Amino acid sequence: MKKFIVPLALFLCLSSCKYLHIDAFTGSTLVWESGSNNYFNQEKANDLKVPDEILISGEVPSEVSVKLKKIPWHSVTTREVVMSQDTAKFLGTFRYDGYALCDLLSSVKIDKKSKENFYPPVDLFVEVWNDKGEYAVFSWGELFYSANMYQIIIAKTVTRVIPGKSKQLWDLPEESKLVVGYDLFSERNISSPTKIVIKSLAGNFIINREPQKFYADTLMIKSGNQVLSKIKTLPAELPILTHKTVFYGHGMGYKGVQEFSGVDISKILKQSFSSDKKSLATSMLCVEAVDGYRASFSLSEIINRNDQQEPLLMYGKGGEKGRERFSLYAGCDMFADRAIKGLSCITIFK
Fold it and tell me: Fewer CB within 10 Å, N or C, the chain?
């Protein structure tokens, strides 16, 4: 009688892969005994009311509904805090399991409005809506260029992370919710999302791929068409930070081990842009260079992080073309596509 040998990779997938719709446990969902070394899995996960599908519209060839049961799922841990007047309201610490926005959006094709003169998707962003009229925005970069791309999910289950001494049991939500693992204030964690709208930054962008002067002497900070401030150099009161990284572009690949030095750009933008609940949930930034290259950033991913990965605003770098004056380094990204040279303007769109 012949033995049937299952390859190890297939066995592992059959035993844990949610994409195959197999009801099985993974390491992130096992419930461990009290006193174990795992602090995130000490009670059974609680199911949330999740829609069967999510509608995706906007800059796509046609609207499409994506069935959630066909999407694999991931785990995100979060300490949820929301703004409450002049203070913070702590909601609890949880592990959420659910469907990553990047997985949902990977199943659709993009039909960019600006594709004829600006093909890269770095200027795209998405709005995630629920049926109550609430929405939250995310840049394409924080979904697809991020070094930790599975931190934004639509939760299907929730588990409390219970304090070892106080044993406090936080109130559990009942509906599915949008969860962002690296947000400081959880203002983008809207309940019961049902729709995702894909958009691109709008503006009078002039493309000039070989400008005679690939830098701007002044960096403008704008709200719509209104100039809020003009920066001629880095603020002297802010410390210079240096990040050493393996620089890697989505298109051209490996660019060497490099160091980038600058100031935390959130410290500058917080002086110009409001950080109220609505702004953190719904405001987008356009970061633009003199040659017309631009990238979208959500306001939250720059000024509302809890992982200390805020982008650096740099000024000058050894005469390298495009870095004679202002440039940006996004250390939160896996790819170099939002490390913008020749930076000239940062505009907020509400």
Answer: N
Cα separation values, 234 from 1, 151, 290, 303, Å? 76, 31, 19, 18
Backbone angles phi, psi at 281, to 5 degrees: -85, -35
Residue whose token pair is 């920066």: 231
Domain boundaries, the chain: 21-30+37-200, 219-349
- pLDDT tens column, 276-309: 999 999 999 999 999 999 999 999 999 999 999 9
Helix, strand and coil content of the chain, in percent to the nearest 5, comes to 15, 40, 50
DSSP lists the bridge partners of residue 328 as: 313
Q: What is the topology classification, in CATH, of domain 219-349?
A: Sulfite Oxidase; Chain A, domain 2 (3.90.420)
Please work out, in degrees rounded to the nearest 5, the angle formed at the alpha carbon of residue 345 by the alpha carbons of 215 and 317. Answer: 40
Q: Answer whether 161's CB lies under 8 Å from 94's CB.
A: yes
Fold equal for 21-30+37-200 and 219-349: yes
The pTM (predicted TM-score) of the whole model is 0.88
Give the model confidence (pLDDT) of 204-262 as tens digits. Answer: 888 888 888 999 999 999 999 999 999 999 999 999 999 998 887 787 778 889 899 99
Are 99 and 179 in contact by the 8 Å Cβ rule? The answer is no
DSSP 70: G
21-30+37-200: which CATH number, 3.90.420.10, 3.40.50.300, 3.30.830.10, 3.80.10.10? 3.90.420.10
Residue written as tokens 């199911």? 47
Nearest to 122 by CA among 140, 144, 99, 104: 140
Average pLDDT of the chain? 88
Nearest Cα residue to 156 out of 137, 178, 135, 171: 178
Question: Any residues with CB less than 8 A from the CB of 315 and at least 6 apart, and which?
Answer: 233, 234, 262, 325, 326, 327
In 3D space, the residue among 121, 155, 187 whose CA is nearest the CA of residue 335 turns out to be 121
CA–CA gap between residue 60 and residue 91 (Å, rounded)? 37
